[in-house]
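Table S2 (continued). Query chain:
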Amino acid sequence: MMRALLSLVLAGPLLMAQSDVPTFKVDVVSKTVNAVNYKAQGGSTKIDFEGTSLMPGASGEAKVESRQAVTSIEAKFQGLTPPWNLGAEYLTYVLWAISPEGKVSNLGEVLIDKNGKAELKTTSEMPVFGLIVTAEPYFSVTRPTDLIVAQNELRRKTEGRRFVVEAKAELLKKGEYAKLGNPLGLTPDLKAQPLEMYEARNAVSIATNFKADKYANDTLDRAKSSLKMAENALAAKKDRKDVITLAREAVQFAEEARLRSVAMQEDEFIARTKKKAADEAKARADADAARKAEEARRAAAEAAQVQAEKERLEAERAKLEAERARLQAEQAKAQAEAQAARDAAARSAAQAAQAQAIEEQRKAREAAEAAQREKQELRKRLLDQFNAILETKDSDRGLVVNIGDVLFDIGKATLKQDAQLKLARFAGIVLNYPGLNLASEGHTDNTGSAEFNQKLSEQRAAAVRDFLVGQGVAADRITSVGRSFNQPIADNSTAAGRRQNRRVEIIVSGEVIGEKIGQ
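Corresponding output:
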């Protein structure tokens, strides 16, 4: 009996930034596993499963029976530890059949109980295959990882023809799911919810990271919809079987979306590669045509030169032709001198025009610098004037005037008397500069609900805008918007930080004050 060699190729989906390289780069490594031609013998036989270095305590056995169309497999395992011990992104195990040609087939999910045991009944259409068990992020994956925890080992009495073959199968390298699956790194709580829920969330997250929202959005939406229904059913404490059914449906849709996304990205890469090759071929053809055209031009020039020489010799032999040539030469000389004079005058005029252009550029530059200085001076003057009323900072967006929370009634959008007095003084300054634009932005801390904070931030921003409009500021020069607690300037975990975050900022900008001081 002979040992079958299966070379396993580890293919990690490494996204590349360049447009002229494939979407996925494949790294190759070899491993071995026994393969058997079960069709050659027929009937049933038994094989063992042996744990790998990743899980040496794992073991198992399987009854393999060759039938007319398929081969049935009844497998039992023990000593399997939770898959998330190998990485938070791995939630389950899958049994795979690998053919000598490198074809892999997902034979089903290996679900372990609390004692690390599992049973699986399945079938395979392959006549010759080896069996491995790998850790996976969800049950419906179509390509195994390289986290092989168990593989088949043949008994002395195992029936079937064994032979040496060389095959290649693509496996996802360990770590490729680390940045995609189980993003929160949670250890599944299988008492609170089924494992299938974690797999469904994992599958949708992985499909999204494979850009399925761009290339297979309709299928991804179905996955998300199924996941949402599963989440709702879980929250409503509906029958556990219904929750599992919806979760597994979400996993299947997510894997379909991921596969479509990968295929379309590969198609785009092939199209880009073909276009690049066509463009290069066209460039080569254009260069070759240009070269031939230049060669033809040179040949024509040489022929013309020969013809001119022949005509000159003929003219010299004829006296009358020679005299006429002399007169023509004198006339040509006079014309050349006149042309030279015109050329000199043109050069002089061009030089004068160039000097004038340089002078105009200098004046324009000085005028621009003076205008910029004026803007900077006005910006500095306004910064000082605003700071005398309310805390003001210079920023790339403009001058930021800060109206603190103490200038409003607690939890309300009503401006206190002190705030109104300060804003009236602020408006008096703004009215002197029609070119200024204002933006009132309300901010809150993270106390309370998002809806309440959004509404309060909008009301406070609008209150400031309405007051300034009432002071004479044109309504089309000022806008208002609520930012809720999405743009904190301090730590919301402290009272002082929350007080700083409760504010209304007036952003003062406009062409008349230019850019940030110092830029």
